[in-house]
Amino acid sequence: xxxxxxxxxxxxxxxxxxxxxxxxxxxxxxxxxxxxxxxxxxxxxxxxxxxxxxxxxxxxxxxxxxxxxxxxxxxxxxxxxxxxxxxxxxxxxxxxxxxxxxxxxxxxxxxxxxxxxxxxxxxxxxxxxxxxxxxxxxxxxxxxxxxxxxxxxxxxxxxxxxxxxxxxxxxxxxxxxxxxxxxxxxxxxxxxxxxxxxxxxxxxxxxxxxxxxxxxxxxxxxxxxxxxxxxxxxxxxxxxxxxxxxxxxxxxxxxxxxxxxxxxxxxxx
Length: 269
Ligand code: HPA
Fold this sequence. Notes:
Elements: H1 3-18, E1 24-27, H2 35-39, E2 41-47, E3 65-71, E4 74-79, H3 91-94, H4 96-103, E5 108-117, E6 127-135, H5 164-173, E7 178-184, H6 193-202, E8 206-208, H7 212-220, E9 224-234, H8 244-253, H9 255-268
Parallel strand pairs: 1-4, 1-5, 5-9, 6-7, 7-8
Antiparallel strand pairs: 2-3, 3-4, 5-8, 6-9
Helix pairs in contact: 1-4, 5-9
The structure holds hypoxanthine.
């Protein structure tokens, strides 16, 4: 089965298990796992591995459930249990969740992640809207055989990839939310200070190990994308030592702030 057919099968299964009518999907990153409960009422839940093409989680801090959550008058599909390139998964698997969510009818995709900050104005604990990205993974979800009939060609325009409309609307409600360019690397090691200084010169404000391939895949199918990073640490060489537990703790500490920002994003959609 090609990746597009597989995602469409998964989308149909999601609708069957959780009901349809989704307005948006939210992909939860490291440290965001507990946000779902605070967002609204959970009306349905299914284990990721029960749906075609989804993997069981392998990274602490990434729960593996797919939930239908009602937030105000919106129906949101919350995907916890993202898979990453650094786990050895190919790009098609990394973007399977968002393709399936679009196939299930989600009209907007909100990608969240944990990130290191290269910009002293973006502090630990702060949610930051992604304004653009630098894809340094060396990969694309659109490489390989051409998309099947009925899909756009693979030469996707990434101008205005992260919806300016959503960013403006969120900042109107909450001016304390930051904004910055996200550099996506493969990981799983953190960067060297020399790499961080290179990224800063390239124009990156944030650095992480996810999001960029998903954003590209979503734009390819013509769906609006928003990205929110939670700053969990100062980037290598700009603060103390780095470790994954610190990333998860920063997520916990900022739980109510990130929940508020995510609700705002959903309300302005
Ligand atoms: N680098 C890469 N990925 C990350 C970081 C970081 O400093 N913090 C959280 N995810």
